[in-house]
Amino acid sequence: MLMQTYETRLDGLRRELAKRGLDGFVIPISDEHMSEYVGAYAQRLHWLTGFGGSAGSAAVLKDKAAMFTDGRYTVQVREQVDGTLYDYEDVPATSPAKWIAEHAPEGARIGYDAWLHGIGWAEEAHKLFAKKGIELVPVEGNPIDAIWDDRPEASLVPAVPHDDEHAGRSSADKRAEVADWLKAEGYDSTVISALDSVAWLLNMRGKDVDNTPVALSYVLAHADGTAELFIAPEKVTPELTKHLGNAVTVRDRADFVPSLEALKGKTVAVDPNHAVAGIFHALAESGATVVRADDPTVLPKAIKNPAEQQGHRDAQARDGAAVSRFLRWISIHAPSGEIDELTAAAKLREFREAGGVLKDASFDTISAAGPHAALPHYKVDEESNIPIPPSSIYLCDSGGQYLDGTTDITRTVWVGPGEPSAEMIERNTRVLKGHIQLDMQKFPDRTSGGALDALARMHLWNGGVDYGHGTGHGVGSYLSVHEGPQRISKPGGAFPGTETPLREGMILSNEPGYYKAGAYGIRIENLVLVVPAGIASEGEYLGFETLTFVPLDRRLVDKGLLTPAEIDWWNAYHAKTFAILSPQLEGEDLAWLKTECAPL
């Protein structure tokens, strides 16, 4: 019955396209801000196909359709999307545009929503289609919205100020920095369209996207230090108006496009990596001079000031105590076989909420038992949920949103009874060695994340194995858990940011892993802060300060494979873990912590 529903939806879309004189349409997971996570109102791909992943797209023609996902979702897309309705296509081996160029007839008119795609995608697709005699057509109103009868409304929850104590800088100071950049470059204005950039610039937060405290809005920032905030009137409170002050004009979100069209004769900077094609089209039609330039908030947002750094330490300490309580709970109850993945995720949320200051999860908890742990981006739901098997590996990747910081931690633990296999121990130890190697590394200032990536993989490579995801991503301050521009990943890979120089004050994850398909998976993830290396050096050298403190499972470690330096790291890490967490725990939780933090 469910698949008939998706078949009916696909048929309805094709009828709507035919009414509009279109032969095809491209459906991404996106919103008007090119967000990684989108609100329920923008979950068009999920509604149409049933796919619940966070990255993917679909292309629909009159007689064919296809789903496009990368290696993270090879299994998931086949479980959730009907293969009789959609072909399964792998990215980056192909793409929606390439697939359409191969399958659409000459003269076909292919629609796309310019408010959901980046300008780079639109331009590349246009060039590719032109070679095949295919026309790319921006639509007026998304055709899926026309057939989605019960589509949720966009959130109207009020936006709220984020106080300077936690932000570490006033919004006026941040806007002045942007204004100085505009004047230095000779620009009149810049469009700030990424939701976390708007939130950072105005010291404003919201509840419009699950797991990310942002408010649906745009900003036009000007060279005189003023700004215009475009946001639904229902979201604006007297408290927010007072917080923004006289230099920020609050306007209806519906006025955004007319305001772009009013910039005739102005030079406007727009970031093609964060602004949809519709913004570029509106500015071009207005007669403005459009300059493609990086969002001026991205780098200062990534370089955390002292208040944000301390906030992260405080949030991590609080979060670490909650995760430790959870791991003890797992060790007691999971061996019975009566705890399933959803129950475990809910219990972890309960431990985090017990502190009374949790605002939200920072992403949907990856509570992965047995073979599900081999899926790096597994998302448990009612259909996929399984009991945690006794005598197996359990992987939990989770995080919390707090006013003073955003957390992200992965722990892999052995669920008894019995002992893990020699292979599991060997693989986990290699992951641990890579984690330690990266954590301990010193490097010249402005070294790129791509230059460090192999350090986390070297011991896995020496064992003839690897992992398919990046090693580290940036993390925001009570903002996005995946924040650019920095990244630790293989150079030349599918993810941007590997060439971004690392700077003092940036926060990244350190998360090597190993995944044996159909069997088990391993990941060890802490967050780290880029700090001065504190060594004698020729020139400026940097290193990492560990921020995350939660015990690692010693049952999955072969001490004989560790060097003396690695054993020293383990012991020092757990000594500090005990020092930070023990004042927050008591009774059996404290006794458990003491045992887990004993020297190796």
TrEMBL record:
GO terms for molecular function: metal ion binding; metalloaminopeptidase activity. Residues 540-600 form the Peptidase M24 C-terminal domain. Residues 312-530 form the Peptidase M24 domain. It holds the Pfam family Creatinase_N. Gene3D superfamilies: Creatinase/methionine aminopeptidase superfamily, Creatinase/prolidase N-terminal domain. Keywords: Aminopeptidase, Hydrolase, Metal-binding, Protease. InterPro entries: Creatin/AminoP/Spt16_N, Creatinase/aminopeptidase-like, Creatinase_N, Pept_M24, Pept_M24B, Peptidase_M24_C, X-Pro_aminopeptidase_P. It comes from the Bacteria. GO terms for cellular component: cytoplasm. Residues 9-141 form the Creatinase N-terminal domain. PANTHER family: XAA-PRO AMINOPEPTIDASE 1 (PTHR43763). Belongs to the peptidase M24B family. This is Aminopeptidase P family protein. It comes from Erythrobacter aureus.
